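ARCHIVE CARD
CATEGORY: sequence design from structure
SOURCE FIELD: tokenized fold
FIELD CONTENT:
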């Protein structure tokens, strides 16, 4: 459907909102679907069907309301996408592609753990409309600006420098502490990987677990050859937790559970608390629900570094 759209630019924010026709059509459609759903809700006798019907009713109610706030806006360091059902804020440094096709405009980006995400720009999409894309020059112009913005390097180099220094200090501190903890029972090393640093602690004793720590936009810790990872922030509490978990692995207070194409790492830290990370283990069945697998899965208790 043809729709009038507009771009608003001020000193700090470039934003886009669909025209009044687009907002009205989607809002009315949402309200109509809600009314129909509510009618069926009170007409049916089965409680089970009523519960199942409540979810789409809530979804259409959100569409009716959010049609008036849908849009896209970007500033110096992030873009905020408001869709018909949800909103998402994406840092510019995590964006690696912007699809500028008006049929399916999309932002491709990676999470802090490396997972690839696709965020559709619903407010800019014309879908399968019979009109050519040339009928929407303002939408195309905004997407071009968004693509150009996402491709630029951040001008605030001081922030990037401070982040790099913070990561360097942390990895150096962890390296020194790890050497004190292992006292010759493991090989401790640090290597660079692009803009990140990786700490490795590899025990000499067979049956003990290795540890890897990667300092990126967040702190990623992995144990042995498991696909599980602990994702931590650069906060004092998370850094303290990271040190406790590294020490626990060195002391042998860690186990792995594998079953059904997935695995879990359990680390017992000081005070008796257990921290768990789970992940797939190279199987097509890893993403299927499997209740109770950690109860019957194969358990491996890792040994402490020191015999």
């Amino acid at each position: 459907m043809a729709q009038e759209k507009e771009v608003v630019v001020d000193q700090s924010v470039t934003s886009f909102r669909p025209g009044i026709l687009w907002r009205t059509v989607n809002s009315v459609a949402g309200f109509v679907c809600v009314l129909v759903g509510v009618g069926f809700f009170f007409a049916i006798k089965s409680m089970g069907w009523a519960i199942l019907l409540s979810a789409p009713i809530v979804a259409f109610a959100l569409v009716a309301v959010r049609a008036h706030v849908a849009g896209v806006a970007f500033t110096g360091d992030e873009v905020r996408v408001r869709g018909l059902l949800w909103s998402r804020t994406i840092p510019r440094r995590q964006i690696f592609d912007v699809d500028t096709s008006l049929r399916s405009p999309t932002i491709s980006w990676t999470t802090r753990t490396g997972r690839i995400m696709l965020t559709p720009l619903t407010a800019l999409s014309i879908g399968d409309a019979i009109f050519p894309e040339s009928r929407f020059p303002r939408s195309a112009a905004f997407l071009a600006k968004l693509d150009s913005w996402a491709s630029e390097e951040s001008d605030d180099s001081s922030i990037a420098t401070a982040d790099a220094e913070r990561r360097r200090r942390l990895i150096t501190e962890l390296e020194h502490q790890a050497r004190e903890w292992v006292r010759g029972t493991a090989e401790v090393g640090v290597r660079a990987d692009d803009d990140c640093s990786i700490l490795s602690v590899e025990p000499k004793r067979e049956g003990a677990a290795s540890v890897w720590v990667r300092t990126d936009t967040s702190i990623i810790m992995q144990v042995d050859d498991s696909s599980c990872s602990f994702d931590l922030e650069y906060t004092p509490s998370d850094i303290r937790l990271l040190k406790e978990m590294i020490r626990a692995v060195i002391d042998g207070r860690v186990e792995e559970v594998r079953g059904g194409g997935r695995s879990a790492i359990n680390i017992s830290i000081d005070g008796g608390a257990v921290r768990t990370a789970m992940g797939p283990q190279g199987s097509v069945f890893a993403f299927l629900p499997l209740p109770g697998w950690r109860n019957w899965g194969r358990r491996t208790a890792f040994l402490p570094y020191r015999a």
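CARD ANNOTATION: Helices lie at 20-43, 47-66, 137-151, 157-182, 236-250, 293-296. Residues 1-11 have pLDDT under 50 and may be disordered.
SHELF: design records, drawer C
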